[in-house]
Design brief:
The chain is of the alpha/beta class. It is built from 13 helices and 11 strands. α1 runs parallel beside α2 and α6 packs parallel to α8. The protein is globular and about 45 Å long.
């Protein structure tokens, strides 16, 4: 869920093109209903991103709504705005706060377009851990920072982080204009996988790379929505994304609107899910999966990135409802 695009930074790789002058947001009354409906659809974790979630005034109320609905909660932040007051407001309402850290100090500050943001992020991690809030670190992998993952892990571990997640850069939003040539290739992905294994052993951190082995992709099509799966939406469509303008889309911010469920400003999420025809999306997953399995992809496949790009180019029959 992206409740706002307001942010205190204007990062070069921001997929939602957020910034200090972007006021787009969703009222808490709408999001409270979305959370209730999402839980009824089988979703059990709410991740709040942005924009900068800590600049959304109703963040505590949003997390409380998810808790009341029986959901786990995570928040992704640049940590620049974190202070003891803000941390106190969400303490006890969040299972994990993920802090973005995109390389060593010069690299992070360049991508975040603000000198000092690296040090503020580490200070935010320390404040969170001192308050007893579990912290992870999210690193956007580019062609230039794969060799810096060790530096990130050392700084993050020393500050109290328990998890390091590495997400390959996708040329979406601001990144499409400012970092289009920096998407990692198979070499960077393989290096990151090896480095994460070393980091897990040396620092005792949990690690995650947002790319799957090609063998896993080929053996378990149902895990990639490329084979029929029964049950409620939350069992098979994951993640479901609510953007700051209210659009409910599969998989990722900016997913092609032809596959959108609709807009939560117009109708409740429960209604949107009930009237949504999932077959065009399922067909997109099937054809993308087949292309990747049969083609010459590398040993590690960033599935969601491939799926987002495929959504922009796939042909949908004219009879298919569009939203």
């Amino acid at each position: 869920m992206h409740p706002t695009r307001l942010c205190n930074l204007r990062c070069l790789h921001c997929y939602s093109s957020s910034g200090p002058d972007v006021a787009e947001s969703i009222p808490i009354g709408v999001l409270d209903q979305v959370v209730h409906d999402a839980a009824a659809l089988g979703y059990d974790v709410l991740n709040v991103s942005g924009g900068e979630p800590f600049l959304y005034p109703e963040l505590p109320a949003l997390l409380r709504a998810a808790r009341d609905a029986g959901m786990g909660t995570t928040v992704t932040t640049n940590a620049v705005a974190l202070n003891q007051r803000r941390i106190g407001l969400i303490r006890g309402l969040v299972d994990l706060v993920a802090v973005s850290l995109d390389g060593d100090q010069p690299t992070h500050d360049r991508i975040r377009d603000r000198i000092g943001s690296f040090d503020k992020a580490l200070a935010g991690i320390r404040r969170l851990t001192e308050a007893g809030v579990p912290v992870g670190v999210v690193t956007t992998l580019t062609q230039g920072n794969a060799t810096q993952l060790g530096d990130v892990a050392e700084a993050a571990s020393a500050s109290g982080a328990l998890l390091l997640q590495v997400h390959p850069l996708e040329p979406e939003g601001a990144a499409n204009r400012l970092m289009a040539g920096e998407r990692p290739d198979a070499v960077e992905l393989a290096y990151a996988a090896v480095e994460l294994g070393r980091i897990a052993a040396e620092h005792g951190m949990a690690v995650q790379l947002d790319a799957v082995p090609r063998t896993t992709l080929s053996r378990t099509p149902e895990a990639f929505m490329a084979a029929p799966t029964a049950g409620p939406l939350g069992r098979w469509l994951t993640p479901l994304v609510v953007e700051a303008n209210g659009a409910a889309v599969p998989v990722s911010y900016g997913f092609d609107r032809r596959y959108s469920l609709g807009n939560v400003h117009d109708r409740p999420l429960s209604d949107l899910a009930a009237q949504w025809d999932p077959e065009p999306f399922r067909e997109l997953c099937r054809t993308t999966w087949e292309r990747l399995v049969e083609g010459r992809t590398g040993p590690l496949v960033p599935w969601y990135g491939h799926l987002v790009r495929a959504s922009r180019t796939a042909v949908i029959e004219p009879s298919t409802p569009r939203h």
